[in-house]
Amino acid sequence: MVHFDVTIGLNAGTEGTPLRKIAQDILKMTVPNITGMVLGYVNELTNAAFVGRTGDDAELAAVGLGNMMQNCFGLSIGLGICSAMDTFVSQAHGAGQYGMCASYLQRCRVIVTLQLAWMGPLLWYSEALLLAIGQDATVSMHAGAYNRITLFGLFFAFQAEAIRKYLLNQDLTVVPAVIAALCSILHVGWCAIFVLHLGLGNQGAGFANVVTWTLECSLCTAYLWHCAPQLKQSRKSVLSVQREAFLVSGLKHYIAMAFPSVVAILVHQQPGSKT
Question: Over the Cα atoms of the chain, what is R_g?
Answer without folding.
Answer: 21
